[in-house]
From TrEMBL:
Top-level enzyme category: oxidoreductase
Sequence ranges assigned to domain Copper amine oxidase catalytic in this UniProt record: 275-708
The EC number(s) this enzyme carries: 1.4.3.-
Stretches assigned to the Copper amine oxidase N3-terminal domain: 152-250
Post-translational modification summary for this protein: Topaquinone (TPQ) is generated by copper-dependent autoxidation of a specific tyrosyl residue.
Known cofactor(s): Cu cation
One GO BP annotation of this record: response to wounding
Lineage: Eukaryota, Viridiplantae, Streptophyta, Embryophyta, Tracheophyta
Residues with the 2',4',5'-topaquinone modification: 458
Cofactor info, note text: Contains 1 topaquinone per subunit.
Highest taxon in the source lineage: Eukaryota
UniProt organism field: Brassica oleracea var. oleracea
Name this protein carries in UniProt: Amine oxidase
UniProt similarity note: Belongs to the copper/topaquinone oxidase family.
Keywords: Copper, Disulfide bond, Metal-binding, Oxidoreductase, TPQ
Amino acid sequence: MAEPSLARLSALFFGFLLLLATYSWVPGLHSGYLSGTGVRKTLGPDLKLRVDHSSAKPHHPLDPLTVQEIERVRAILLDHEPGFGSGSATIHSMALDEPDKKRVVKWKKGNRLPSRRAEVLALSSGQSHVIIVDLDSGRVVSDVVNPTSGYPILTMDDLIVASQVALKSIEFNRSVEARGVKLSDLVALPTFTGWFGPEEEGRRILKVQCFTSQDTPNYFMRPIEGLYATVDMDKLEVIKIVDKGMVPIPKAAGTEYRYNVQNKPVHMDRINPISIEQPEGPSFLVEDGHLVKWANWVFHVKADHRAGMIISQATVRDSETEKPNSQILMFTNVERTGEPRSVMYKGFPSELFVPYMDPGELWYYKSYLDAGEIGLGPAAMPLVPLNACPRNAYYIDGVFASPDGKAIVQPNMICLFERYAGDVSWRHSEILIPSADIRESRPKVTLVARMATSVGNYDYTFDWEFQTDGLIRVTVAASGMLMVKGTPYENVDDLGDKQDESGPLISENVIGVVHDHFITFHLDMDIDGPMNNSFDKVHPEKQRVPTGKSPRKSYLKVKKYVAKTEKDAQIKLSLYDPYEFHVVNPNRKSRLGNPAGYRIIPGGNAVSLLDHDDPPQIRGAFSNNQIWVTRYNRSEQFAGGVLVYQSHGDDTLQVWSDRDRSIENNDIVLWYTLGFHHIPCQEDYPVMPTVAASFELKPANFFESNPVIGVAPIFEKDLPVCRPFASS
């Protein structure tokens, strides 16, 4: 029997992590405006700055753990029971245990940093540990064992070991070879099991399914259907093999997606290369690696093991007292006399829920909670310059801990760039006064913070886009490969009345299984301060005009309702019963007496149609509503709970909200779930074109008037003159 290739998973799934794990630090590549010492440096698009992470230090209370700090946490844990010194305990995630919110809000640059602490999720002898390590005192200050059901986030080692255990099974290998697949072409991919009861109870398990990479790197399109192995991760043994018999393996032809090896003709005219040039360089400033200043915005950005990217302490300057100049980038050199006003303390994707709609034995368990089960940070590959991020982008690395506590660096994980796509900030042309020659229009230039993560077959891109009018747009874009199912059928005409209930035929022998995507965002809105916010439901209500009072028969009247408790703020969106939803500070009034606020504007959305007693929906109960508001609690960060893998759903946003705490005039957190149902089609094969969903956070009586009314337009003299080279 041929020796199976045990490195296949690491090479094809998250192999990049293994490469990084061999280094104590990896230099990041940066371009843009940098400031670490108060001196602004301009770097052109072809220049690179090497960042020595081995000597980096924190400058802000919310800065992520540095390489030195991660190594110090590791050293402290080596002397801590249970089992770190002996190697029997493993670290599953390590992140900054953020200081108390009040201390962070009061902190000013130049002040001493609050005590630095690390939160470590670890596993030892089948027990989950939530450990707090104080870096200042050099000791473990808290070690809570099994605080809820579930296990810590999986590590890359878990995935590799599960594959190795399955591939050591003679019975499993015989089933693979019986299908004509060489073990050297085999890709054994562990999949997450969810929680359905007795089989998962009291032990950590992974299910291993297989694909073949023969003649293609796109093994996801060549599933070995009808076969999987269940691996007990505590005993490192196969406890179950399911073999439902032979199903034709889809062909390799047509699955290639790499540009340099494709030979498929593209029937379209060539699109010339395009780039937005900034002859004076980008107008944003990054201080100390994480504090971003652009136009009228200031915010903190960092990479995170679980959330991927976190935006914190977003403030916008009230432009009523600002003096914008005529630069193209609007507020480039503005005299910063306006008041910086708090908008959001912290925002990030809290959880992703992706349930597949096939109840059969080989598929029922496929309902993923990606942030809590594998983490968006470790799966974030380096962004591709000029294709994933434009010229003059600034790149930020991620720094994480490996299972043995050593620091690894994900280079170029986040990028910052300015975007201009011909969009209009505001405009008006006067047509009703013939003698007036009024044509006013302003360009919309925005700043984007981007992170992309490759969670197995799917790639998600997260954009936080800041506008000078105070709006924040959050977009999630999905691409990558479908999770497909093998079938004996090659044409829909062959199906007759046997059409597969799990999804449509998208290629010969390939079923695209129907599934959902739900992404829940944690949005700690602090409108003009953290302690005095409320949640208003603004309702347009139809009124009937009394007979004889007007030629009209009906009209809309707006009524406002203040949510008193958390259950008042469990919102299901409806086109036929519309509301606006505002987070307001009732203690900060405009000159007209309106409370300062921001409203959340949903984009296209979907709702989960699963029954609430369905095990995947119990764990993904945060998708039961599109909007929630909870009272701030620093332990309630992730909508699926602290320990998500094989959790029972006992520590979710639904559970917290059902406590029905008071939220009026308080420190509150807004949660928003965006989603879409995905019914695959042929165009999704072999790689899916990007589909995106978004929402907006928009000022509502926050400013006294349009904050960008005085911004100058662009004139020809502001732009560089580009001419072709003279011919020789």
